[in-house]
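User: Before I run my own analysis I want an independent prediction to cross-check against. Here's the chain; please return only the structure tokens and, at the end, one sentence I can use as a sanity check.
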Amino acid sequence: MHVLITGGTGFIGQALCERLMADGHRLIVVTRRTLADTEQCRYVNNLGSVDPGETVDAVINLAGASLADRRWTPAYKREIFASRLDTTKALLGWIQRLENKPQVLLSASAIGYYGHHGDEELDEAGGITPGFSQDLCERWEKAALSASDLGVRVSVMRLGVVLDHGGGAFPRMAGPFNFGVANWLGAGQQWLSWVHRRDVVRAIDFLMQHEELDGAFNLTAPQAVTSRGFCDAMKRHKRTLVSAPVPAVVMRLMVGEMAEELLLNGQRVVPAALQQAGFTFEFPDLDAALADIL
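Assistant: Structure tokens:
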């Protein structure tokens, strides 16, 4: 297949591109970086560099500024929104101009779509609780789903916390454990719906290949854990000398609003739609994932 990817040089995108090229697909990666083309992959700085007459079979939209990289100032919140909505709307405009429409648009979202629900288990039909992340994800998904009006199959991928070495959240989460300190955030009872990066890549490929699959899909491992549960699992893999929480008040002082949205509250999400479609996880539980990552 000929696949166009936004966000292809990011943490998930790099692994995805490697997998797709290994499977023989040809890629166009939209990136602000200047990179040398290869036999299978062409890099472009904007969608205008892609000929409208060129046939693209699938579009994978992963672009978006990280929610956890900086404090959520009003300016950065605007950047978070723009990096997702503007890119997705630009993709829709580009698809509309194509002579041959792609078969599928796979567009990233996040489990922040649901907002906070305490211990309630959430599948794709779960309710929503308003908040910054919830509003962001809902508007992002709505923009992507409008591609269906152009005759394009759309799947939105509600990503959990993606774990692997070399990037993403894991290096920061594991940092204290590397110095013998086991910790958890706040009371430690908030849910962490995580997923191994390799399963994310496999799930994206699965959704791309199965033309009957559209709508929303939770990309999380089947077994979520609490913050305290993540700490306990890490202790089974890392030697620690002391255990202590990071108090909620400290988290709020350090990162402000982000602490409430991402760190001190969470969602207990299950990948019901993926599993019903026949997808199997290589890393369904955290211990197996940590054994691979560490």
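Sanity check: Residues 74-97 form the longest helix (24 residues).
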